[in-house]
Amino acid sequence: MGANLDAAANRTNLVIEVRDVYKKIRKFLIFVFVVALGASSTINNPTYKVSILIGLGVTLLFLIFDIYGTLESRLSHIETSLQSPKPEEYRDFHEVHLPLKRLLLTLLEDSREVKIQVIAVAARYSWGFIEDRIEELIKAGDGKCRLSIDIAVVRDEVLVNNRQFGWLERLRATRDGISRFRQRRHADLTSRTLSLNVFHYDNLPHWHGILVNGEYFYMGRTEWTFGSGSEYPELNVGEIEYRLFRKGDRFGGSERIKRFENWLDYYKFRSDYLEKSEAAHPTAGEPPRDNGAAATPNEVRHSG
Hints:
7-stranded mixed sheet
C-alpha cells in the first residue's frame, strides 16, 4: 500500500514538473515549430512535415487550454464579485498568508518584476511572511524575475510615546531580522534579483496593508483595546480583519490603492526628511524618557 502511494505521489510530482517546464518554454516551442514549419517548404519529406504540424498543433492546443483556464478563472472572479456584497475578507493575517503566497507565486512565474509595498507598524507579520517565503519566491521567479520590496514601519519614539512597549520589541526584532536578511541575501541584493528598502515614519496608522504590483491590496486596520488590565490601551495590528481590494473592482479598490500609494510616498518623504534633519541636528530625534521606564535610544534610520 505504501509503495503504491509513493508511486502515485511520484507520478503526480512528475506531472507537476512537466507542467511547470512547459509553462516556461511554451512560447519558445511555438517559435521553433513555426520556424520549422516555414523551413519545411524546402524539405521534401512528408514525415517531417506531419511531425512538425502535429507538434505545433499539440502546443497550440495546450496554449488554448491555458487561455481558456485563465478566462474561466477571471469570469468566475467577476461572477463572485457581482454576487458578493463586499470584498473578500480574512479574519487576520494568518488567513491572508496562503492566498498572498499563491498570488505572488503566480505573478513571479508570469512577470518580469513583482513589487511588494507594505505599510506597517512593526511589520511583525508582513516581514515574517517575506522572510519565511523568500527562498520559494526567488525560486519561482527562476532568477529572471526581479522582486522589489518596500516596507514602511513606525519609529521607536512613536511607540515609546504611546507606551506600546510590546510593539517596540517586535519592531526591534523586525529590524534585527532585516539586518540578518541583508547579510544572507547579499548576492541577490547585489545582482538586483532582489531589492529591499525600509522607511520609518512618525505616526500610528489607522490602517495598514500590503500592495502587490499596484493591483492587489490586502488592507488591514488598527484598533485599540481598552480595559485589558494594562495601564495604557493596547494597539491591535494584524490580528483583526483584512480585506482584499483589486484595482478596478466595484468596491472602490482603485481609490484605496491610490490612497495607499499616496501615503507610502509621504512616508518615504518623511523618512528621508527626518533622517536629514537628525543628521543636521543630532539631538533632535532623541525620544523622551518615560518616568520609571528605561531610556530608549533612537535607533531607527532609513535603510533603503
